[in-house]
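Appendix B. Raw example, untouched.
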Amino acid sequence: MTPQSPKPPAPARYSGPAMLLHWLIAVLIFGLFPLGLYMSGLALSPRKIELVSWPKWFGITVLLLVVLRIVWRVGHRPPPLPASVPRWQVGAAHALHGLLYLLILAIPLSGWALSSAAGVPVVWWGVLPLPSLLAPDHALAHRLVEVHEWLNFTMAALVAAHVGVALKHQFVDRDGVLLRMFPIASKE
């Protein structure tokens, strides 16, 4: 029998609150994107008007959760990537995360601005009226529709890259990077 080489230590993991916020935001984004695609294909109807409230409610919820996540992250640095990860990949990871945070903030704000410019109030969960960010301006609202869509498609591409890289680390590199953010991972 040949002795097995020692298993490298598992990389440090994110904190429980960081994981919870990450996955809550991810689930909401994964639900909002197809809802937005579905709604954009609907003709103006009572059904579409009813559905329009959902992305507003969940979008503002995502905005609040990402602000909470950023506040948490300021006081709780993320765990370092394993030493085996090349420096250029570490830099790329930081850039991708920065862009994702920027978009997670920008998309709900652009949706809120769009509603304001369209003269449609945002009432969070039908209970809490939020102030208008802009004066009604239908030409601006039309342009903001395009901005909001562009931001969402950019987010979808970056999320796909993020997921793809995480899966590469798990199944090709086998370095445990994915497990740092996976709540049910073994803590060996």
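End of appendix B.
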